[in-house]
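Look over this record as teaching material.
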Amino acid sequence: MGFMFVSILGDSISTYSGYNPDGYAIFYDEQMQKRNGLKSVYDTWWAKVNKSLGAYLCVNNSYSGSRVSGKVFPAGNCQERIMHLRTSGHIPDLILIYLGFNDFGYGVPVSCAPMSNDGKTDLRYFEDAYMQMLMGLRYYYPNTRIICATLMRTTLKQNELWHFPERLGGICFDEYNNAIRRAASQCHIGLADLAKRHLNFPKLMKYDSRYETLDGTHPTVKGHKIIADEWIACLSRLL
C-alpha cells in the first residue's frame, strides 16, 4: 500500500509559517506560534490528524482571513484555491476542509439566493459558495476522498466569564453549520460534524467540542489538540 497524501483547505486557524503556499497570509507566524504555545508544526490540528492516519501533507492551502463566500481569490470557492491542492508530483488522496469561521465573523448572509436564469448561484451567500466549492473540488479531484467539517465553538483561556458570541451580524452560528451539513449532503461529500459530535455525551466530555483560544478564534496548542481529537474521532467512522 502506498503513502497517503492529505491536503487542507482552510483559513488562519490552519496556517503555519513555512507550510503554506508562497505569498499566502499567515496567522501562525513565529510570534503567534510562541504566544499560543505551539512549539512546532506538529502541534497543529492537521499535523496531528496526519500522524494519526500515517499520512503526509500534500498542500496546506490555508489563507488567513479568507472566507468561503466571494467571487475572487482568496475566497475558498475560487478556482485558484481549489486547483492548488495538488503538487506537480502528487494528487491528494484526502482533502480536509475547515473553513467558514470568517463568514460567520463578518456576518455573511447564509441563505441560498434563488437560482438565476442562467443557472448560476449567488456567491455572496455562504451556502451557495460552499456548494460551489464542494462541486469544484469534486470536479478537479474525482478520485480523492473529500471531507468537510462543521465549525466548533471556542473558549477563552483563563476567562470563564467569556461567552462565545452566538450571533455576529445578526446571524446565528448554527445557521452556518446547518448550511455546511446541507451542502455536504447535496453534494455527496463526507461530513465531519465536529460541532455536533458530542452533543449526546455531555457527561463524558470536559470541553463539549469547544476549543481553547486567546482571542476567541485561533486555537492555542491545547485548542489545536481538541480540534485534532474531534477530527480523528470523526474520521475513524468515515474512512
In short: The chain is about 30% helix and 15% strand. The beta strands are 5-10, 56-62, 94-98, 145-149, 153-156, 167-168, 171-172, 190-192, 210-213. The CA atoms of residues 149 and 192 lie 5 Å apart.
